[in-house]
Specification:
Blueprint lengths: L3 E4 L10 H15 L4 E4 L9 H9 L2 E8 L5 E8 L7 E5 L1 H4 L17 H12 L4 E5 L10 H6 L3 E3 L18 E3 L11 E6 L11 H5 L7 H22 L11 H12 L3 E4 H9 L1 H5 L4 E9 L8 H11 L4 E8 L13 E4 L7 H6 L1 H26 L1
Parallel strand pairs: 1-2, 1-11, 5-6, 6-9, 9-10, 11-12, 12-13
Antiparallel strand pairs: 3-4, 4-5, 7-8
């Protein structure tokens, strides 16, 4: 009997889109089990691909804009409108305007990068008549707490001289007062629902600066500076607005953008998969599968904290399904994922090579690794009848 195999990966950041990953895995499966029925669920976590995935799933439309990128230069971005929504619902991803992939490697400094372009996309959606905005948070190149975003929408973030603070996470240390009196009034009527990593905290040992700023280019000294700046940000928000973001789940999402959405724009934060899965009908696909293949660029100790393979594993286990994860690299703590719904995992790397070579050959390496994994699966299916 032919196997029903569900392919449910994430993209490989700065390498392969989620659609590319899905097709590379499918090619590897077909090379070994051409008779298998392939079910495809390219998954997004609020980061790159969020807008396109939800627009495609609902038959919506895409709209293009030039906005301010994370290093202050213009970038081409886009937002969409969902098809068939009961109210005019815009969808956008912060990564389109402030993603890490938009920050040149020699300019990666989260003390300076800005979320201003995210605010410009929200503004464009409001100008186009949005009554609700779905905002995906992930793959960010910023650590400014959403300050740049909020300033575009009329929120005044003032220093001790009553002047607007500048761009970048380090500037939050200079914040002394928040003034919402000039905030775009349309935000009172248009609801913002943000899909965030619910585990991302703004402050503390697992705070966003400590965990993610080094990945965005911060030195240890800059991490300390950014943590202190976010502590000041949270303190001023609590004093001026009466809102505690320090312990709000998801407030650390996308360099603290979650905190800015929640406190400054009256946005609602949601566990990202609660939003994504309702549009992709994932549980229905799981009910049809015999085996699930998932993938991400790096499988490590961070994966159980809200990454796609762990979420796939968690949901697959509700259906009693085995899950195999493929990864560009296996990092520290990869084995932890065996406690979170992943039954087996494998790296696509066959030998040591440079990052540039790995990126260039990622699609072929992923297909080859899938072939090898599926050959082992086929051996298991041959053994099963002998033991029956």
């Amino acid at each position: 009997m032919a196997l029903n195999i569900l392919i449910a990966p994430s993209g490989f950041k700065e390498s392969l889109s989620v659609l590319d990953v899905t097709e590379a895995i499918a090619e590897g499966v077909r090379a070994v089990l051409p008779e298998a029925r392939l079910l495809k669920a390219p998954l997004v976590d609020g980061g790159e691909g969020f807008t396109e995935a939800l627009v495609q799933a609902t038959g919506g439309t895409l709209h293009h804009r030039i906005v301010t990128g994370p290093v202050g230069l213009p970038v081409a971005a886009r937002f969409g409108f969902l098809g068939g929504a009961p109210v005019r619902t815009a969808v956008l991803e912060m990564a389109a305007a402030a993603g890490l992939s938009l920050v040149p490697r020699d300019q990666r400094n989260p003390c300076l990068t800005t979320s201003r372009g995210v605010g410009e996309l929200i503004l464009a959606a409001l100008d186009a008549g949005a009554e609700r905005i779905l905002l995906g948070c992930g793959d960010s190149g910023i650590n400014d707490g959403g300050a740049g975003m909020a300033q575009v929408l009329g929120v005044r973030l003032l220093d001790e001289s009553a002047q607007e603070i500048g761009a970048g996470g380090a500037e939050l240390a200079r914040l002394r007062r928040i003034d919402l009196s000039r905030r775009d009034p349309r935000l009172e009527r248009a609801r913002i629902d943000a899909a965030v990593n619910w585990h991302n905290q703004l402050l503390g040992p697992r705070g966003v600066a400590r965990i993610f700023a080094p990945q965005k280019g911060a030195t240890p000294e800059q991490v300390t500076l950014l943590e202190a700046a976010l502590e000041n940000y949270a303190a001023v928000i609590r004093r001026d607005l009466g809102i505690s973001v320090a312990d709000q789940a998801g407030s650390g999402a996308s360099g603290g953008l979650g905190a800015g959405l929640f406190a400054l724009l009256d946005g609602r934060l949601h566990p990202r998969y609660d939003i994504v899965m309702q549009y992709l009908e994932f549980d229905q696909l799981l009910s049809q599968a015999d085996l699930v293949l998932t993938a991400e660029g790096s499988l490590d100790e961070q994966t159980p904290w809200g990454k796609i393979p762990a979420e796939v594993g968690r949901r697959a286990k509700r259906h009693g399904l085995p899950v195999i994860a493929l990864a560009g690299t296996l990092g520290k703590g990869a084995a932890l994922n065996l406690q979170h719904g992943i039954d087996a995992y494998a790296s696509i790397m066959q030998r040591p090579c440079s990052l540039e070579e790995a990126i260039a050959k990622a699609s072929r390496l992923l297909t080859q690794a899938t072939e090898e994994v599926i050959r082992l699966v086929r051996v298991g299916t041959l053994l099963a009848p002998r033991r029956a």
